[in-house]
Amino acid sequence: MLSIKNLVHVYGNGTKALDDVSLEVPTGMFGLLGPNGAGKSTLMRSIATLQTPTSGSIDFDGIDVIKDPDLLRRTLGYLPQDFGVYPRVSAYDMLDHMAVLKGVASGKDRKATVESLLQQVNLWPVRNKALAGFSGGMRQRFGIAQALIGNPKLIIVDEPTAGLDPEERNRFLNLLAEIADNVVIILSTHIVEDVADLCPRMAVLAGGKIQRQGAPLELIREMEGRVWRKTIDKEALKEARDRYDVISTRLFAGKTVIHVLSDRRPGEGFEPVAGGLEDVYFATLTASRKVPA
Ligand SMILES: Nc1ncnc2c1ncn2[C@@H]1O[C@H](COP(=O)(O)OP(=O)(O)OP(=O)(O)O)[C@@H](O)[C@H]1O
Fold first, then answer.
1. Where are the annotated coiled coils located (predicted)?
2. Is the C-beta atom of 182 inside 6 A of ligand 1?
3. Is the ipTM here above 0.90?
């Protein structure tokens, strides 16, 4: 269990990226959903011991993460948002090198580790190819392989599916689902479907604050009967926004489809829709913007 209490992070320029964040993250897959600039990477980097928060505490299975970062690093796997350079070395050699850095000293252990990880992430057939020539999906699978060296109990993946095509995304998410037994995996993303597809627990972070948390299905159930849809001309959007609690808009066949949150039918031409996680997310963001800072 990962337990975060009252975490605050203020950058040198005065930006308060985390504002009293408290979270309990159980074993399994946990989705941290938030728009760009919400503070997700700041939170991920704080948990991964890459930066020290201004105040607050992080505890993982009895390890005081802020006081004892080295202890956490032994049981941590991290796939950063930006994995950085992809050198002209083969996947095999790079993974072997990273295993050395992570302290897998014996050559025999390393061979076993590297081989089994390459198989697990389905990169065995291309193990001798240079990482520089890998596709986005292959790179992310390599990223997971390196994160899994040393059997970590806490795995952090920061926006891993951004830029992947649907097939690669699927493959990547399936891989995450397979390793989620007995470990804590935090998936930070701005893609609602990533969370809907595979996270039994989630939180929405916006403006540095946790706006909502719970099980996606429960959060969706809480909105039952409160989401309404109407198709309007795009010229009517401004008026609709003034009149209703519009949580999302999208174009469909040249018209604008709005989703409105309301306890009863908001007006003429509205039909009820079964809300999804996207509605939960957008409603949460809309509500968070209304709160004066
Ligand atoms: N090193 C830094 N110095 C100053 N401000 C920063 C720094 N890093 C991030 N910020 C600011 O902190 C806030 C949160 O940024 P963060 O990168 O954590 O958000 P995010 O949710 O990960 O967004 P994104 O998906 O765009 O990376 C933003 O306002 C950002 O501009």
1. none
2. no
3. yes
